[in-house]
Amino acid sequence: MKNTDGSDRLSSLHDSVLSHILGFLDMKQVVHTSLLSKRWRYVWKSVSSLNFDHSFWIKIAQPVGFHPLMAYMAIPPFPRLKYGFMDFVDHILSIHEGSVIDKFNLYGAGCCQKDRVDEWLSTVIRCRIQEIHLDLYTALPQFFFTSSSTTHLKKLLLASIQLPDSNSEGEIMLDCPVLETLILINCHYAYNPSNVFLISAPQLRKLVCRSLHISCTIKLCAPNLISVTCTGSLLRIYHMENISSQELRVTIASQRTNAQELLELLRGLKYATTLDISNCWLSFSDNSDHDKSTNMEKLDVEEPFEFMVQELKIQDLQGNEDEFMVLGILFKHAPYLKTVHITTTRARKSAIRKPLAKFGKKLHSLHTASTSVRIKFVVKTRM
């Protein structure tokens, strides 16, 4: 990037601007910029957004017939690259020790030893880290989940992480006093299902849970929460405490969903004012109509509840009896419901469209706790 007089416009930028630009690159690429010229020799040391991606190290030694899983096996030259990657992270963090690190992204994909990861986290915490992205096949240390370690942390993304074991009271507690965004992807916890994963984050605004494999209950203490997104496999019941937010949007997208599990999940998220459900093929695990009714009565009578939802959106509805029963429960316990917008799956043949249209008319016969609800039912057609 040069001016008409031949001068380098990029190199003429202030160090703070160059550091910001370099913060979007992997650190391996960032360090290589030191070879450009004397002007660039030390710029990389001032970068406060540190990105470490192990795939940049694998690419330099991919043999014919390479498969990504080979990188995690003891197949030369990958062990050398694995330790080279970890040594590189050690070196970069030692240079930044004592300075402020704004962002730490680590994509190790099972190629990082747990004791090294623990030490890296300890280092970035001392550097008053504000944003952490971790994609690792490893368990996180207990100290990472305490408030003293997350004093400055505002955004946290955990992918493929094993949650630490519970304390003596059966709790795994994530305590983040200033956390605003929490994203959990493909995380695991396969210990005692009676344990509780407690998320205490008074400033949390956005929670995303995607394809989690967590057997315990998730309990939220996040009074300012405004968005919850749950995709993939449904979790065990959420419990929400002290929700003061006036607008909470919950989005759920999970194929082949057990209807009872969905209702139990929604009960935990009862403070939602806007509820979006898509791509859910609702059905009960037991095909017996008697057992279905019994399960619904248990949810309806033994444990009464009330939804705060005002706007309900459902996409890809199949038009089966199980879905009708679930909607009956939702309508009956949503006294503030104002609008319902339901869109069916695409129906090409009239033999499919007619039952769906009949299902839409049948919805208006359901008892609704709200006296002012408006229902819009759309049957999608294929061209």
UniProtKB/TrEMBL annotation:
InterPro entries noted in UniProt: F-box-like_dom_sf, F-box_AtFBL13-like, F-box_dom, F-box_SCFL_complex_component, LRR_dom_sf
A UniProt-annotated Pfam family: F-box
Annotated F-box domain residues: 7-60
PANTHER family xref list: OS06G0556300 PROTEIN (PTHR34223:SF51), OS11G0201299 PROTEIN (PTHR34223)
Protein name: F-box protein
UniProt lineage: Eukaryota, Viridiplantae, Streptophyta, Embryophyta, Tracheophyta
